[in-house]
Design goal:
Length: 388
Amino acid sequence: MLKLGGQYTELTEQQSFQQPTIARLSEQASLPMPLRKKQGFILRKEYTEIPLGYGFYVTIDAGQREVTPTLVAPVIALSEAYSYLADGDVIRFNPDKKSLRVLYRRNSLQNYFLVTERCNHYCLMCSQPPKNIDDSWIINEILQTIPLIDPATKELGFTGGEPTLLGDDFIRILQTCKNYLPNTAIHILSNGRNFKNSDFAKKYAAIDHHDMMVGIPIYSDISSIHNYVVQAENAFDETIKGILNLKRLNQQVEIRVVIHKQTYERLPQLAEFIARNLTFVDHVALMGLENTGFTKANISDLWIDPVDYQKQLYEAAALLRSYRIRTSIYNHQLCVLDKRLWPIARKSISDWKNEYLPQCIECKEKPNCGGFFSSTITKHSEHIKPFH
């Protein structure tokens, strides 16, 4: 599991950050001088001559620390846990707490931004338990970060909480993405309920992004079951209205189904509901459970070994595909899946929290397997086994 945040040490007392700073890192020793001031240079062993003029310097290798007195700029020392940092990454430094957060990794295919911790759901298995707080400062942080992101980035994601609770500010974030990153796909995780408001749905569609999709959960074909899982009244009806509004405006919609003890039995019926009523959606993701957040507190009501719901999972996937609805399986290990489902199983877990068990090391299918959430290592199927 990658370390994305923690503490840092300043090696130059006379030079330090005076206020919270968001900046891009560079490893380009020949970068033109005018471009250096707003970037941080990563000091590596191989640099015999340190390029001057950068706004600050970052050293991860302890052997480089004796060079710091020669630099008239802040020098930040990080632990070896941050050795993955590279050219183009974006970091936020907070001098009050001497803390940092990695906001964007150029070499990663999974860059997601938490937009807010507020939510109008209270899902039984929420991996990011909601907080009713004023976190509007996140908006400016994201708006400052977007211009620093490599325009060649394939995809960015936005999640929460519930991103659409930001209203027009969320629309502004998406518009900024289109302006600075016109070729970057956008994926949004939302419960979809606020799109029931036609005016808001029209503002979203008016961004006219070439590749922007909303991933919206539906947990049952029966409204009361869905509402129970998300712990919110009228959630099912409002979600369906939101999906219909989005598709009426030709927007991309993905339906996400987290499979657990409350949802697995009616997977085939949910697939039939989608096929008959929402056949125009762009993708359906059938997802394994992440054992973190509220899931830990509700584990006895949620956990079921994936091996025990393969019949329902196969029936649901087969039905969706028979209607030519693009379907994928996320967050599952190949050894627990019906082999007929392997072709639609995806490596979907973000790289920073993706791990494998010791018995997976010699498995010949490991390169193709989704692995585990770091949080799931302690709670997983009893049927994990390597393929030789």
